[in-house]
UniProtKB/TrEMBL annotation:
Membrane-crossing residue ranges in chain numbering: 39-66
Protein name: Late embryogenesis abundant protein LEA-2 subgroup domain-containing protein
Keywords: Membrane, Transmembrane, Transmembrane helix
Length: 131
């Protein structure tokens, strides 16, 4: 029968088994782990590059195309009365006479418009009616 001393001697001659640290070190250096690490690195790199390109594109559009449109500045240089007419119309109402006063004034205005935006606009002569 094998004594306890002989079994210890047999264990010492046998190759030592890998302990937990050696197994962990092997796992860290495995090809599968390195492939996954490289894939994660590329994925994060591509995602970061896409976010950077998207941010630069949005910034460029915000500074050029998507500016807030400003209102044009309207200045009246001169205003003159070109003509006027006055008329009174009488109408009959049940209790008496109704008088209607009609006024017609024609003004000429010299107007200048300053456009602070980059885009231009054109206009022709126009007429404005006030009631």
């Amino acid at each position: 029968m094998v004594t306890e001393r002989e079994s210890e001697h047999a264990k010492q001659l046998a190759q030592p088994s890998l302990d937990q640290e050696a197994a962990a070190a092997c796992r860290w250096r495995s090809a599968h782990y390195l492939r996954r690490l490289r894939c994660a690195f590329w994925c994060c790199g591509c995602l970061g590059a896409a976010v950077t390109v998207l941010g630069i594109t949005v910034l460029a559009l915000a500074l050029t195309l998507f500016k807030v449109v400003k209102d044009p500045e309207l200045t009246i240089n001169s205003l003159s009365l070109a003509g006027s007419r006055f008329a009174v119309a009488n109408g009959a109402v049940d209790d008496g006479v109704l008088s209607i006063f009609l006024f017609n004034f024609t003004f000429e205005a010299d107007v200048s418009i300053k456009n602070p935006d980059v885009a231009s606009f054109r206009f022709r002569s126009s007429a404005t009616t006030f009631f």
